[in-house]
Write a structure and sequence with these properties.
globular, 75% helix, mainly alpha, 0% strand, 287 residues
């Protein structure tokens, strides 16, 4: 049992790390807040205080609405593909077959590919309408190639990001699936339950917590997707998300004030989503 002295000693040892982490977080946030209240650009040495004008400008910018919509579509699209695909692949990998270890390694391999490299591979080797694998396959069966990144830019990015995150979802869901007791499955079979009934009434409820964790972790990272957009489509109204829009404002327009206001808006929106997801996770863990 910890004494008062040991608790005080533990707090004293933890204090430097906590203080350093707090400073690491609060200083950039405070500077961003301050810059967001200034008319601060790379092309003007004067930085007058303008209050909330940058926020008004950013929130009323038509690009913000499209970027916000693209962010939601990107996150929801990737989550839909990875959760459903992860469940199906986990069910397949849970079966006994020859070469199971090798197949599992191959399924998990895309998660270790850097986002920039993955985007380049998909852009040049898969989705290129002339010599890409998908284009040549469609030409071979008589459908005709598709210029994915031009005709369907946001869908293309969703496919690329989902390909990267599908192994992660599969790994978490497979781990949860393997913890399911075989006795439950055998009891369901003895009661006359078929494979579909067993899946919906035993397997899927057992995987509920793992699915919730996958959604939470992936959402946090999907809100900051940037490299895939930069490498493939280069942005634009049809594919830019909030991080890409903010980066474009500061890199192309040199408007630090508006970009800082956009960063604060993005942080607020991300925290709203995170709070909702954390509560969802908490309820599922308590269930």
């Amino acid at each position: 049992m910890a004494t008062l002295h040991t608790k005080s000693a533990a707090r004293a040892m933890m204090a430097p790390s906590v203080i350093a982490l707090f400073i690491w977080m609060i200083v950039p946030l405070a500077l961003t807040l301050w810059f967001s209240t200034l008319r601060y650009t790379f092309y003007d040495p004067l930085t007058p205080f303008i209050g909330f004008e940058n926020y008004t400008y950013f929130l009323t910018d038509p690009r913000f609405i499209s970027a916000f919509e693209n962010t939601l579509i990107l996150v929801l699209g990737v989550l839909l593909i990875t959760v459903i695909g992860g469940i199906l692949i986990a069910l397949l990998l849970d079966q006994d077959f020859h070469g199971q270890t090798v197949v599992r390694l191959l399924v998990l391999a895309p998660f270790f590919v850097m986002p920039t490299v993955a985007a380049l591979v998909w852009k040049n080797m898969m989705m290129n309408p002339v010599y890409g694998v998908i284009g040549q396959t469609l030409n071979a069966i008589g459908i005709g190639s598709i210029d994915w990144l031009t005709d369907y830019p946001l869908l293309s990015i969703i496919i690329i990001v989902a390909w990267q995150w599908l192994p992660f979802a599969t790994l978490i869901l497979l781990t949860a699936l393997q913890s399911l007791s075989e006795d439950q499955k055998e009891a369901a079979e003895m009661d006359g339950a078929g494979p579909i009934s067993t899946f919906f009434y035993i397997t899927l409820p057992h995987m509920k917590r793992a699915i919730t964790v996958v959604i939470l972790i992936q959402t946090i990272f999907l809100l900051s997707v940037y490299a895939e957009i930069f490498v493939t489509t280069g942005g634009g109204e049809t594919s830019s998300n909030l991080p890409f829009l903010i980066a474009s404002i500061i890199s192309l327009e040199g408007d630090v004030g508006t970009a800082s206001a956009g960063g604060i808006v993005a942080v607020v929106l991300a925290n709203i989503v995170s709070i909702f997801l954390v509560r969802l996770v908490g309820k599922n863990l308590e269930a």
